Amino acid sequence: MTSLLPGTVPADTTADTPVAALAVDAHDVRRRFGERDILRGVDLQVRPGEFLALLGASGSGKTTLLKILGGLDREAQGRVRVPARVSIAFQEPRLLPWQKAWRNVAFGLRGADVRDRALAALREVGLEHLADQWPKTLSGGEAQRVALARALVRDPDLLLLDEPLAALDALTRLRMQRLIADLCARRGLTAILVTHDVDEAVTLADRAVVLREGALAHELPVDLDRPRDPSGPEFGTHRDQLLGWLGVGNAATPSEDPLPEENTP
Ligand SMILES: Nc1ncnc2c1ncn2[C@@H]1O[C@H](COP(=O)(O)OP(=O)(O)O)[C@@H](O)[C@H]1O
Ligand SMILES: [Mg+2]
């Protein structure tokens, strides 16, 4: 674990000890693109095993923050501590078309047992039977599950999900939500899910945070029994709270930031 002077050196995504009290500890994270300050001092702590939903208007910097946490952005400022093994899954499955499903899962792994490991990960997402299919023969939901298997095969301590369900139809999306919830519970994973779907956040998360004007402006613990019933009154209260913060509630809040229609990288 390394501590860095905020603002003077690149963000350091450093391997942490497994006994750490926090899975993610980010302090004063800042990112500027040209003249635009996208992140202006993000502080974020996530407990081991916690499921965090990250919301915010389109362009508010959610993907930027996730990439920083995933160690994919070396130009950010601030201090970032994450576990040793971090996996990211994006909105698009990003499968290599010339590799069969299992090879996409195994991509970058080494050793004699890579196929077995890939098959085990595919089994976890219910797709072992499609291991030898080409990506173009998979449905959108199947391709996204292959991408999830590719994230899981590395046995991550932290799973970063950037709107992985945004492009799926409603039914597939509900199934995938259940799958992600089950996987995270079974593996005791720490997860950060970027979503613009407030119901998805309340269904899955232990806590939801809203990114606004470069910082985490709002936080909502979601202390509801699972599985959660979207038609229940407490669910509705949480939904309304988040919608209000996002500026799309039926409350008096004027809509400065319309609900994002995501098509960002
Ligand atoms: N590599 C980059 N170069 C310049 N601008 C960028 C880059 N990445 C993101 N941005 C800008 O930063 C802002 C936040 O982007 P992003 O984090 O993708 O938002 P979100 O995921 O919340 O929709 C957007 O205005 C985007 O255009
Ligand atoms: Mg994004």
Quickly give the structural class: alpha/beta
Query: Could you tell me the number of beta strands?
Result: 10
Low-confidence stretches: 1-10, 251-265
The hetero molecules present are: adenosine-5'-diphosphate, magnesium ion
Strand proportion, as a percent range, falls in 15-25%
- C-alpha end-to-end distance: 30 Å
H-E string: EEEEHEEHHHEHEHEEH
What is the mean predicted local confidence, pLDDT?
89
Share of helix, binned: 25-40%
- The oligomeric state is single chain
CA gyration radius, whole angstroms: 18 Å
What is the compact description of this entry?
The protein is an alpha/beta fold and 265 residues long. The chain is built from seven helices and ten strands.
Characterise the protein shown here.
- The chain is of the alpha/beta class.
- The protein has a domain of 57 residues.
- Helices cover 29% and strands 23% of the residues.
- It contains 7 helices and 10 strands.
- The strands form 2 sheets. The chain has a 6-stranded mixed β-sheet, sandwiched between helices. Strands 1-5-2-3 form a 4-stranded mixed β-sheet, with helices on one face.
- A hairpin with a 2-residue loop joins strand 9 and strand 10.
- Helix 3 crosses helix 4 and helix 6 packs across helix 7.
- It is globular.
- The N terminus and C terminus are likely disordered.
